[in-house]
Design a protein that fits this description.
InterPro entries: Aldolase_TIM, Ribul_P_3_epim, Ribul_P_3_epim-like, RibuloseP-bd_barrel. This protein is α/β, with parallel strands linked by helices. The chain has one domain: Alpha-Beta Barrel (TIM Barrel). The chain has eleven helices and eight strands. Bound molecules: D-xylitol-5-phosphate (DX5) and zinc ion.
């Protein structure tokens, strides 16, 4: 199933309740918590997430881009928070933290920055409900999708299938109607989109377009990732992503 989680990083923070209303047709809302230490940007913390939980019916998907999630992440496992994602690069003990999140009644998810290999999680996959493969460097919206992250998505999907576990695979960064299908064909099923949704006059229309783009990819099935490396499957990804795909050849 294709799930679309708009990121409110691209919403108007002063009119957040209004902007949450614009994405009511989504499958969840992606909430980026940044501490200006783990990433070079600052957003907000727990009080804001608690307030968001009061004004939206959507499942809340918290993406913690913070240092020391082992200490802070469990506090985010409040009512209405469906999943808490912490970064593999920031945690001291991913398995203990995931167990604690699950014990508190939320889904546990782990995120990988572009430079982090799947080896960081693959041995402990059953401990997580979701893995987030970052398709940009975390910190800012509006960056170009990195197609060279897709082999990580494919490796995780293959491993989850081998183990027979249900694992959600999320991609975050540069997701548009052009890049979503290629990520879906690699095995991703939860798609975060900030600028692609809120940069449009009708976020609801854009959510529907993204969902359709994902369904099409599932119909087509898996793609040949080696074609991306040759640059031939990068067509339609947009100029920046095409450049990124091409750069793999250099
Ligand atoms: C970036 C955040 C993303 C961001 C994505 O570090 O984690 O959730 O909102 O923005 P777009 O969709 O514009 O790339
Ligand atoms: Zn995010």
């Amino acid at each position: 199933m294709v799930r679309i989680h708009p990121s409110i990083l691209s919403a108007d923070f002063v009119n957040l309740e209004r902007d949450l209303g614009k994405i009511a047709s989504a499958d969840g809302v992606h909430v980026d918590v940044m501490d200006a230490h783990f990433v070079p940007n600052l957003t907000f913390g727990l009080p804001m997430v608690e307030r968001i939980a009061e004004v939206t019916e959507l499942p809340i998907d918290v993406h913690l881009m913070i240092d020391d999630p082992d200490t802070w992440a469990p506090q985010y496992a409040i009512d209405r928070v469906d999943s808490v994602t912490f970064h593999a690069e920031a945690t001291r003990d991913a398995v203990s933290l995931a167990r604690e999140l699950r014990a508190r009644g939320t889904r546990a998810a782990i995120a990988l920055k572009p430079g982090t290999l799947v080896d960081a999680v693959i041995e402990h996959l059953p401990e997580f409900d979701m893995v987030l493969v970052m398709t940009v460097e975390p910190g800012f919206g509006g960056q170009a999708f990195m197609p060279d992250m897709l082999p990580k998505v494919e490796a995780l999907r293959t491993k989850a299938e081998e183990l027979g576990i249900e694992l959600a695979l999320q991609v975050d960064g540069g997701i548009t109607a052009d890049t979503l299908p290629i990520a879906a064909a690699s095995g991703a099923d939860v798609f975060v989109a900030g600028s692609a949704v809120y940069g449009h006059a009708s976020p609801a229309e854009r959510i529907a377009t993204l969902r359709d783009a994902g369904r099409g990819a599932f119909d087509t099935g898996r793609i040949d990732l080696s074609a991306i490396h040759r640059g031939t499957a990068g067509k339609g990804l947009g100029a920046d992503a095409d450049d990124a795909a091409g750069s793999l050849d250099r």
